[in-house]
């Protein structure tokens, strides 16, 4: 186990105890992404005390926060309510830390682990549900097979003509692509291309999978995953457009 970043002691609280300052931004990021043993070391508490601290925060997080989203994706007002509750509920522990930073640290650590795992699982399922590419084989007449055995002509090959190439931008309407599909929604949702790709929806095959879900399931999915990035009107328009897909 890698040791947690060293954190010095600073001012004292009302009881005369030393107060641990907030880690630097770089140290904070390492603690968020590292194992919880590093957090225990940074907080300088025992394992049983940390287990109590963790359980209290998790139980309330399930009640107030969206535990399938990162901390930066939470509703700011709800997060403020959660922080106020934690300061009061854990006042006896948090008095040892400047600006109650262990609450933010552990909750961000907890939400990050859960959200990464959940979204990775979703992308894996989407990949498995994509139809395998079809292999098309053509049978050639005997005369063509014989001709293919002739020696190649001498000299360099002829120059390619423009029409020999298929440009991605000139593909027919049957292959929409995620950006083109979002453009067809009214209102235009092309600004959400990256958000859809983060969910594992990046092509027409992925859209077909989402379209196969019942409308209520699609609506619930987009409300949960894109809360704060799509309005109710946009979600309804998207749901209707998916239902019109053939």
Tell me about this structure:
The protein has about 250 residues and is mostly helical. Helices cover about 55% and strands about 0% of the residues. The chain is built from 12 helices and no strands. The protein has helices spanning about 25-35, 35-45, 45-65, 75-90, 90-95, 100-130, 140-145, 180-185, 195-200, 205-210, 215-225, 230-245. It is elongated, with a radius of gyration of 28 Å. It starts with about 25 loop residues before the first helix and ends with a helix. Residues about 1-10 and about 160-175 have low confidence and may be disordered.
Features:
mainly alpha; disordered N terminus; 246 residues; single chain; 54% helix
Q: Total number of helical segments? A: 12
State mean pLDDT (0 to 100 scale): 78
- Measured by DSSP, the beta-strand proportion falls in under 5%
- Report the major sheet: none
Number of strands: 0
What is the H-and-E element order? HHHHHHHHHHHH
Overall, the morphology is: elongated
What structural category do the secondary elements indicate?
mainly alpha
Unreliable segments (pLDDT under 50, ≥5 consecutive)? 1-11, 158-175
Taking all Cα atoms into account, the compactness measure Rg is 28 Å
Distance between the termini: 53 Å
Helix content: 40-55%
